[in-house]
Amino acid sequence: MANIHTSQVFYSLTLEAPSAPTAACLCNVIPELRTTEPQLFEARGDKVYLKRLVVTDHDSKLETILEQNVFSIVRDVGSFKIPGTKEDFLTISSDSGRMVMLRYDIERNRLEEIHLETFGKSGIRRTIPGQYLAVDPRGRCLMMASVEKNKVCYIFQRRPSGEITISSPHEANQSNLLCTDLCALDTHWSHPMFAAIEVDYAAVENGSSSHSISQKSLNYYTVDLGLNHVAKSWTAPCDPTANKIFTVPGGTEGPSGALVCAEGRLYYMHKGMQAPLTIPIPQRQGALETARSRYIVCGSMFCNKKRQSFFFLLQTDDGDVFKLTLEMTRVAKTKWTVDFLRLRYFETLPLARSMLIIQTPAFLYVLAETGPSMLYHIMGLADDEDFEPWNSFDSATFADHRHKLEPLSFRPRDRLKYLSHELEIPALHPLMRTDVENLTGEDTPQIYAIQGRGHNSVFKTIRHGVSVEEIVASPLGNVPYDKIWSMKRAVDDEYHYYILLSSSYTDRTTVLGIGDEVETLEDTSFLASRATITAAQMGEDSHVQVHARGVRTISGNGAVAEWPCPTHCTIAVAAANQRQLILGLSSNELAFFFMGTNGELNALEDFPEMSDRITAIGIGPTPKGQQQAKYGVVGCEDKTIRVLSTDLDSPLEARSVQALSDVPTSIEVVEMVDPKSNGSVTYVHIGLKSGLYLRAIIDEATGELSDVRTKFLGHKPVRIFPMEIEGQQCVICCSSRPWVGFNHPISKLYTMTPLVTGPMTAASSFISEHISGICGIADSDLRIFNPPRLGERFVHESVQLENTPRNFVRNPWFPLYYVIESDGNTLSKATENALLSEMSDKQHALPQIGQPFAPHHWASCVQVVDPINSKIESTVYLEDNETALCCACVGFEARDWEVYLLVGTGQDMDVSVKETGYQGRGGGFLHVYRLMDAGTRLEFLHKTRFPEPIHAIAGFQGRVAVGVGAELLIYDIGTKAMLRKTRGAKVPNRIVTINTMGNRLVCGDVAESVSYVVYKPTANRLIVFCDDFIRRWTTTNTMVDYETTVGGDKFGNIWSVRCPEEVSAEADEDGMGGFIVNERSFLNGAPYRLDEKAHIFVNDVPMTVKRTPLVPGGQDVVFWSGISGTMGAMIPFVARQDVTFFHLLEIYMRNRKELEQIDKCNPPLTGRDQLTYRGYYSPVRGFIDGDFCERFLTLPPAAKQWVATEMENWEVPEIEKRIVEMRTRAAF
Amino acid sequence: MADKLRTQQQLEALQNKYVGTGHADTTKHEWTSNVMRDSYASYQGHPSMMLYMAVGTNTNVEAVRRHCMERMVLPVGPPPAMEEDEE
């Protein structure tokens, strides 16, 4: 592994973490907030989040306390309270083969490892526990189980000293035993027990059993705390379709035991019962519903210990949630008998991975399997017997699965009754495809995405930035203003009163007053006949207006004093704080003023001269309780800035000089909180003419500048406006678009994010009685908006789609997308309408919720989406049970390069794809649509039948390359059908992607990576000349250059392969004389093999890879997106030394042993080694893990220092700067 | 002879500990069953792949998991009849 960075190296960075939730649990890690702000621990992808629910009078939100990348595949999370401790401990089950116990350290805001115990090999394996995790409700032990055979149990104990000890692992293994689900039983204080649904397959596999289906049983495992061992204590046969198990409260609250969920049935089972108590899961009544057993996908138990009552919320695969209660009679203090089960229809909610019932305040958190997760306020618990009596069911049947039950049915509602929608947590999963294009001519390209499932599918336009909510946008005539100030009347006022607008073009100033409305003030003492250079409220209640010819001071009593500019020069720039004023004169001199307590400006006598024309001035804010700021910064035409002392003792004495790459246009000195030390640090923000923005720290004592960070903001000169947002000092930077710079509330890093709004010339903070926000000027429009929500990263706009989107393609000329959509096992629109029209009115009356399930039916369509106006232009429904699989816009040479939309389909497909018959029905079609009305409408031209479904098409030299099964064919357009021109190239299984460049075609095979094919026009032949030596289950790929392909596979890898140079040259030799035609096949494949250049595991199935720049002026990166909602970038390294630097950083960051000793910091929480994780299937090659390098920024200072020392010649700020700039230079 | 016995015992211990460890007489059915069981167990542990399959088959993650679990019992069908072993 030492140095395999031979040629191209990428820096792999996650831009947007996966949003698909894996698991979640309630916890209580901050004991003080137990009753007021309940906390949640959830896992999404390889990240874990600690959140808290904050409910205020007017809104509620889930605030992230902590997020951390754990560099392992998280499978489940749990929390438990060990008797005698105040707070909860957390545990994560992952692929590390280790059990981890974590504690949240409130002071340092991080998760601290208490125990880390290895029990098996790393990786997702059949017999290594980790798939299931169950924690004893009393926090005495936990059990982890594997899918087959193994179970491991750890017992916790709290010593009187407060130390938590953990036992050695107790195993309960049994060969040939498959575990379907595991839960911990509530045994009150007697020995802890776990219940599992299990199958022993030994009998059926040996052929000794006559059953084709094995017996499924419910097994109890008792953890004997006295004898310190785990043993199977009870077993009972259960329903062979059982898939979920939930624990029933025990002790004083309930009868204990387990709730077993099977297909169409629920069972209450417990040791000592003759037969299980059972109730069928009701089926939906609906116009188009067919009889079909439902099963439980997710559930949650709620137990109110005080009132000794409990209930379950169980969700079926349709999304219907039922409330299950056990009606019991108490026999003894802790002994109950269950009389009957009661099931009531509760609500229909999005299909969840996990549902959490929060007691105080009463909320239901639904982590949706697809789409946004939801937070609901619980208004009622379906306790009203009289409401919807037809949706309430009782059962007192004691019988097992062999006893058939009468099916029950209920009527779902289409609106919420017991819940009210409170909050939607935006999510991107399932992210089917993305495209990066700049359709609107903005600075940066937008990300277009198709996302979602069924009728909840959307087409999204994603922009990087934070959204701002505009309150006022009023045109102020046709005068282009370029500066704006908003001021209070006096320093102690709460609200602003004046807004000054200055126009250098017309050389005028307009004064507005803020009352109930914003209106023009005519009779103020401000000079209206000149443009204002700067204006400020100074002293107690004075106002200062600087214009080219002088400085006007208006004191609180209305007296006006004017300081005239020295003759033969004008004032070019100025900066003011509460007490001080600096002017930059056109004679390159500086003038300095100080305002005394009487509100008069006192000028400094000498005017020090600067080296060149002064272009920008900034002065620090007056510190609280002091009279003067320490430093001012002056920028000159000669591309330098100087830090000057503004102390009255040594006024305008130069302290340091810094050279810049361009002329500074705006300088602001701002006191900002340094998140590392929580102290205040003076930053100077500099905007350059070239659109570059710089930020540096001014040393408090010496005035030296250090830690300079740069970012390119846009193609216009940058102007900077400091203001306070959400209680922290931020800066708004206006270039070709506005940006906001702030310390990120969670990551604590200084972040620059664009505001998603129109361009702005100038901005100022705005505080009135009703609005507290930002006012800005864009040409002649005054705009007032709410402050942006800091921390937001993306702004979405969405268009509703009809079915699950599968792929999309852009119109080459117009800003339009053609989206192909399909849903398996769903009635098509036409069939649905036909069925509905046949029905009587009575059946009609029942609402149909969601898409009607119908086996072997397909609903599929092609939609034209206009992302700019956010609307669907037109829709074409596919008929004959066809489903759209791929699409492409192809220009045909035979038709004068007219562009057609081609859609490849399959007919009568099984949802699990398999080849269908050709004669009569089945196979696939190639549809051709003509683009009408500027591409907004599709006209069906013809379709051509193929023996197999078509999964890939691509335009190729004025014709079209079609992948039919394993074969690559070239077709041309005809009047009645597509005409075959050539055939011959075959890949091993099925072509799923085609990319072309020149005469070369790269075909992605469903299971065996990519094959390079060359087309020989003279002989009209296709020849496969190069393929891969590793099987890769290609999902997507793209040619980043003529030789290289970057792609992703179903197992979550991203790889890059390259064709060897001589092979590439040989393939492109002219004519058929070359060797390539006669080259012999090598090991049953193509004559040559591709070289693997890069490979990394990203823990998400990549659905799109694309080579594109992401930021203005940024280099090309490989952008990718995955199905769980991940968006990432692979940034190619340009310089060798950068590779060495990051490589070294990775090595020292991986040194867990050393880092652990320093300040107890331990990067990978689950104990998974980052390098083996990234090399899950194949060793990491040609990649630096950027996410891992960024963990450096969150290390405690001592650990950072250790890494820096080990790396030699590097300082901590320098390393931080390189890491941050690696991201900001190429991505966001 | 003792050596052979020990080797045999070691192999048995291995086979007991590591499910799927083969031996000289591993049949095709045993081999393929093991491969399939390993695969199904692996699918269940990768949440993103489960989501991918759920979207592809228009079902939900729990349905895919159930399917994987059920298939693990006899992943490649029942074992072939024993008599055919004779030559």
Structure, explained:
The complex is a heterodimer of chains A (1228) and B (87). With 1228 residues, chain A is mainly β. Among the domains of chain A are: 75-101 and 123-157 and 166-425, Methylamine Dehydrogenase, Chain H, CATH 2.130.10.10; 471-786, YVTN repeat-like/Quinoprotein amine dehydrogenase (Methylamine Dehydrogenase, Chain H), CATH 2.130.10.10; 1127-1226. Helix content of chain A is 7%, strand content 50%. Chain A has ten helices and 92 strands. Chain A has a five-stranded mixed sheet with strand order 89-90-91-1-92. Chain A is globular. The relative contact order of chain A is 0.08. Mean pLDDT of chain A is 90; it is low at 1-5 and 913-919. Chain B has a domain at 28-73. Chain B contains four helices and no strands. Chain B has helices spanning 2-17, 28-45, 47-56, 61-71. In chain B, α2 packs antiparallel against α4 and α3 packs across α4. The radius of gyration of chain B is 18 Å and the shape is elongated. Chains A and B meet through α1, β24 and β69 of A and α2, α3 and α4 of B.
